Amino acid sequence: MSSWFCPEVLLVLSGVGLILADSFIPEGKKGWIPGAALLFSFVILVFTLGQSGQPMPSSWQNLFLTDGLSSVFKPFFVLCLLGVTVISVRTPMGNEERVRAEWIALPFFPTAGLCLLVSAHDFLAIFVALELVAISLYLLAAFHRTRAASLEAGMKLLVMGGLSTGFLVMGIAWLYAAAGSTEFSKILVEQAGRPATLPLLFAIGLILTGLAFKVAAVPFHAWAPDVYEGAPTSTTAFLAVASKAAGFVLLVRIFGFGAFALDSVAVFYRPVLLTLGIATVTLGTLAALPQRNLKRYLAYSGIAHAGYMLLALGTLGEAGMGTVVGYLWAYLLSTFPVLIFIQEMERIHGSADIRHLEGLGQKDRGVALGLTLCFLSMAGLPPLLGFSAKLSVFATLWSAGEMPGLVVGVVMAVVGLGFYLVPVRAMYWEREADAVPAQRFPSFLVWILLFAGLAQLVLGLQPRPLVRLVERSLAPATTAVSSEN
Amino acid sequence: MIFGEVTLGHYLALSSLLFLIGLAGVLLRRSLLIVMMSLELLLNAANLALVAVGRFQGLPDPQVAVFFVITVAAAEVSLGLAILVAIFRIQKTTAADQLSTLRF
Fold first, then answer.
1. Which of B15, B83, B97, B98 should one mutate to test binding to chain A, selecting the residue with the greatest count of A CBs within 10 A?
2. Does residue A479 form part of some domain?
3. Among the listed ranges A186-195, A364-373, A431-440, which one has the minimum average pLDDT value?
4. Which of A100, A203, A434, B99 would suit a FRET pair with A402, their CA atoms being 20 to 30 Å apart?
């Protein structure tokens, strides 16, 4: 087996290793397991980064294929895993302390699934990888089995995830009926130059519905706020960043260069995607305004961001695909640090209510500064990275001549300023609430937040590295055509 | 027979009907057990379509795909029942509208 499979294999081996270590090592000697998990995810990140520049062959009869897109996003997911591990190490487990090792080891499996997902080149492979991710996430969401909110989040995620699986499998069945294959390049070659048949369009619609659940696009977004709020914070982080990003990578692959990058399909689905984008941006932005819980707030913020990405994707051009890739990295840098902060806030205050932010600007300057930079970047204020991301969405819409999408996007970006400034105002302009515990945030959190804030400032002023990353992601697979079956 | 020879169209129509019944069950029923049965019905509707397409077009791939779907559905339902048991221990009910800890 060729070397490109390594991140996935290493992830699964680490996860299994940690669980086995937990079973065979006597109680009282398990203190090193969290440290080992952090070390493993860091080593895998370095390994994945080192590997991502090399040209790599396809494997298993073109079920999996490594191209620019997958080599750019595997480090993304492993970075998410590192962040998730930081959060799960810091999660208070209450009377479930004895299952901490499992709790820390479990996120390795959905990460492996995500890495497989972005290199999948066949809808059947997508189905299997997606279920590996989804089933692990149901378990992670419902992990605190004595807390009603966590169980409820797990159940809602399971029902919604099951529904999306149903749509996806039905889509695959219709795709077999319409195109006789589920392999991307075969569909592309066979259907090129032909008018799209009704069964094919129906199959694409079913598959798109399945994926719209995963990225929480309106009208399939209703699960997101409830699940984000009820699930443990590390699971929320995984869902909000990694799982959403995977959905978009899949959409980029399918509509950008994979199976459905056909003119006959684009004529029909371009307006559909743009309408989804307009609805998602509008609802995400407006529903975020009255939120008082930081996790629900991030859920609606994530829905709004998904809307911008759908608008860029909906233009179905290469520029739109590149914009989505860049936007996802900007989203990771601005959202993930806030989720790590939420975990620490829950440790100190017991909930993620926005009013716990009050007075933070005076009490803990470093944390407040880092958080402010993250929120302003989400809002899209210059000179931060979020501004460049939103600007490239608007530029894409402008050059594609999509005026309705552009107008709604700009208006909602301005409205969005209002709700992204709510936490900033709470930190600097509100008096500290009365009974605030005097506990301070740990210093690693200050460093993470300041580093993320600085990265967004630097990348916002000088987006050259990100542009290069985007260019690399759009490079075609090195062996897509000449692979020997 | 009343319908003449059974064709692929008949199978696809039946599977679509099952899919719609499953969808209605997920969206409308109040008991979580029935919701999970309906989820299974969704996947089985897709399985029927896969098998029929494989049979009529002479393709082996869709019929193999069914095994993947069955396996995944089993994993999903076992996890779902485990969560359901845990919910029942806390809330003493499996009605979906009792799940209202998370409301804005």
1. B83
2. no
3. A431-440
4. A203
